[in-house]
Amino acid sequence: MNEIFLPLVMNEFVVAEEEDNMKPIVDISYWQQGIDYDKFAAGISGAILRGAYGIWKDTMFETHYKELHARGVPLGSYHYIIGNYTGLAQADVFNQAISGKELKLGLWDDVEDRGVTTGLSAKVVTEYHGNIETLARRKVGIYTGVYAWSEIMGSQSMIYSDRPLWIAHYGVTQPSLPRYSAWTKWILWQWSSKGRIDGYYSDIDMDVFNGTEEEYRKYFILNEIIPTPPPVIPSPGVILPSLKVIKNVYVRTTPSQAIKEIATRYPGEVVKVLEIKSFNPVSVWVRDERGWSAVVHYGVRYME
Fold first, then answer.
1. Which of the two residues, 3 and 241, has the higher pLDDT score?
2. Cβ neighbours of residue 40 under 8 Å, at least 6 residues apart?
3. Which domain range does residue 274 map to?
4. Together in a domain, 140 and 174
């Protein structure tokens, strides 16, 4: 993620005014180690983590995810795909890496590699994109550069314009859209690879959302300050169900992934439900003698 481009056709964008206190969004990978996560988390609005490179899971992904997620930082993940492995093989690796993780800033195909031995082709990109959306069961955005997209995609450069665009464009006050593409707007703009964040000793990629902080939180559904619903208290004679764990899930003292886990439940374990909380149709939690665990949370089912 280090492309530098000159401006071409611009789309509307106004850099956040000084009174807009939105902190930067960053993207990090194996190359960013030795982070003081407390300081780092306090200085950012979100982070997009590299989940994989080609057919290899990023070896810092789990650490970055665990540390930043525990500190309440909104997260996403990208996959740097390359041309000398099939799209299916790469999609399978990424899907395994992200499985069970809360990634509200989305999933992103990193479409930029034009190396001699690893350069992408439209065939690999389309095969990968179709497979990762099928496996992950969600729309996946595109990260690319102004020139990289058309050079890789060729005659297919007009596709995926209905997917979110994360554009890399350095040294300009406004980003350009990818050449010969059908996108009319961008969602994220990687504007520098030389940013600095307290808690990390070196340069880091810096990104900005195309809008205000309020719009950012609304777009990625980050406004989760929801009044806690009253517990479901069974009427006399009503027995709450027992559920079977089908996927590893943490036990917490409060029904929230922002709370540090105190234990883990494993497939086959039976949970004798004492209390139920349903925050919305995609986040349902239950409590037993050990504590709270998610039954289903944003598309991931842990019990049945």
1. 241
2. 68, 197, 198, 199, 200
3. 242-301
4. yes
Q: What percent of the chain stands above pLDDT 70?
A: 85
R_g of the chain, CA atoms, integer Å: 21
Task: Provide the pLDDT for residue 9.
Answer: 42
- Grouping H, G, I as helix, E, B as strand and the rest as coil, residue 182 is coil
Q: What is the CATH number of the domain that holds 210?
A: 3.20.20.80
* Cα distance between residue 175 and residue 155, in whole Å: 23
Strands in 98-172 per DSSP E: 107-111, 141-145, 165-168
Last residue of a domain, one of 219, 251, 273: 219
End-to-end CA distance of the chain: 41
* Cα–Cα distance, 215 to 273 (Å, whole number): 38
CA 169 to chain centroid: 20
Query: Rounded to an integer, what distance in angstroms lies between the CA atom of residue 234 and that of residue 143?
Result: 49
Model confidence at 75: pLDDT above 80: yes
219, 276 Cβ separation under 8 angstroms: no
Residue 93 in tokens:
């690796």
| CA angle, 159 then 3 then 192, to 5° | 110
pTM metric for this prediction: 0.70
Which has the closest alpha carbon to 57: 32, 29, 86?
29
Total of domains in the chain: 2
> Can you list the alpha helix ranges (DSSP code H) found in 27-105?
37-42, 61-70, 87-98
Joined tokens for residue 223: 């406004």
d(C-alpha 242, C-alpha 255), whole Å:
18
Tell me if 202 is assigned to some domain: yes
